[in-house]
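quick one
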Amino acid sequence: MNILVAKTFKPYNFASFKSVSKQMILKLIQILAFVALSGSVFFLAFKLYKRIYRNIMLGRKQVINDNIPERLKNTLLVALGQKKMFKNVIPALLHLVIYVSFVITQIELIEILIDGFTGNHRIIYHAVENIPFLKGFYVFVVSFIEVLSLLTLFVTFAFLYRRNLIKIPRFQKPELNGWPKLDANNILYMELTLITFIFMMNTGDQAKYLLQHGHTYGFWVSGLLAPALSGLGETAITIIERIGWWGHISMVYFFLLYLPQSKHLHILLAFPNVFFARLIPKGEIPNMPEITKEVKLMMNPDAAFAAPTGEPEEPVKFGAKDIQDLSWQNLLAAYSCTECGRCTAACPANQTGKLLSPRKIMMDTRDRVEEVAKSMDANNGVWQEDGKSLIENGYITVEELRACTTCNACVEECPININPLDIIIQLRRNLVMEDSNVPNEWAGMFANMDNNGAPWQYSQLDRLNWTKE
Amino acid sequence: MLEVKTMAEYAANGETPEVLFWVGCAGSFDQRAQKVTRSFVKILNHLNIKFAVLGSEESCTGDPAKRAGNELTFQMLALQNIEVMNSYGVQKIVTTCPHCFNILKNEYPGLGGKYKVTHHATFLQELIDTGRIKLSDASQFKGKKITYHDSCYLGRANDIYEAPRALLEALDAELVEMKSCKTKGLCCGAGGAQMFKEEEHGTIRINNARTEQALETGATVIAAACPFCSTMISDGVKAKEKQMQVKVFDIAELLAAGQGLENLTF
Ligand code: SF4
Ligand code: SF4
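structure w/ iron/sulfur cluster:
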């Protein structure tokens, strides 16, 4: 440990005791600042993410523990492997760069965190400095991150261009007006800032090392930039490096705290979302057991009288009117939605100018969960009815619900296995069975089905008329 | 008069058929779909397949009610149908309607109706594969451009994309694909009980949008495997005033023609 500490001091190469003590004080201030910053960020993050968990659990209970191997496989292929993204190669590749760079950059974060808490500088580098193989590996990893960051820089510009200049239809829908559009761009600007800080940090660091040792650490990209800084002098270079270092970690922390209110929460929730996504055939709409009970009583009235009159049962609500009636899995999906609009672009109703947009179904669900959550937060975590629901009230309209053809195009397209149709059906059930809110034609159709066993008014006895040519 | 026996008639003779043909409401009552029902029965009879229908004992599967949100009507019909089928000891079902197919296959088991359910696309494909169907009259299709419209309830809902295409290929026709096909297939607009109501307010009807895609292929025959798709696309073709040049047929009609059991004009 001593050796390690001694080594870490080396690059600073102090001239006198006086400057050493000055360095020590500076270092101490930085450690304290880092502990204070990290402590408050982690505390806040814990609260924010716990709140998201609570919000998701506002949904109806549903046990999902079947077919774990298949669920793991999906998580690996669809979430980690981005399998469904590759149906459309260009955005998939662009997204892949940002995604890989995001994941790999976290490796460097480990060193930054240790350095920050212990007041060291590139602790891992100095620990492996004398082991050529490991040192080479370290330099490779950091260089690789630099290359990815550079690529990400280009991709970020490409995304800004795609979103704001070439007007790709799925990014121009009304549900993106306001915060969602701002959010999408915010993240891209944050990405640009982060990359700038990374290069300030590495280039400053390398320039300083160059001044002191006559050569750089050997990182590929910043190594090319470092000589340009050497004319500035050690103090200026140190300041650039420090701004980069603090800027980098601050952006990462800011991002962590920003996520819970952003569509970018998907970078975390896509994994559980894919894991818990339904596995049954897309065409299957699960039966409602509470209805089976009622129907069996209706078909066999004797059983109703024979049935023991035990605990008076809670009145069951059919279908979903608000977020508490949807399954927690639906709410998890709402928080996971990337607002990419692939679902909406594929939706036949949306393509033909109807109000329905499956992406909006997911966004409205999340917005309503947030509304409920905010009102709970203001009321000691207790929910008090606010007279609103997920249907109408500025959320999902009856017209949208009625436009769905249940074609499953949205489900097929979603890169993270979200099922907007599942929510649509639950809401339709509530409209129809609780509120009798149906178009006239459907009311007639139901009556025919009830009376003569067909959606049209034909007698069941005529079912073989087609045999007579 | 077509030769068709009901389950009740089989039971009265103490016999059991190989398969129950689930005709469905469209197949029973809709004039256009009745033709498909007849074509399919002609194929079954031609191949001496012992099949039965439920006739007046069949009710709607409940699909439009369920998808509109009326689970109550759906389950009443489903439990009734299941009672009838279980009383006959039905094992295998074939149906010419993807909606009936989907609901019988996926949603009836949970209510006690467990059968081996096949859609006629797969059923016919198996008959071709095993050599039972001989396409003696397929030359009329040679060089004809046919495009296939994927039914949502066959395709995305149940991952059946190849069977109907295999049939068209067996006919020696030139299969051309639309801009959106297979997993990306565009709905005809009928599903989810839309068939039974006016479309919501929009800029264009879904069936017209789909028909445009079909016409863009330059095909003279649009093949479908669903009675509702057939109606929707036929309406689309009429709206474009192309009904003289472009015909919409069900795969059963095309296969019946390929065996010389049906005369189609196209
Ligand atoms: S299932 Fe409904 S919401 Fe989804 S794409 Fe089809 S019509 Fe649109
Ligand atoms: S539901 Fe899926 S496809 Fe639709 S916007 Fe959200 S992430 Fe994209």
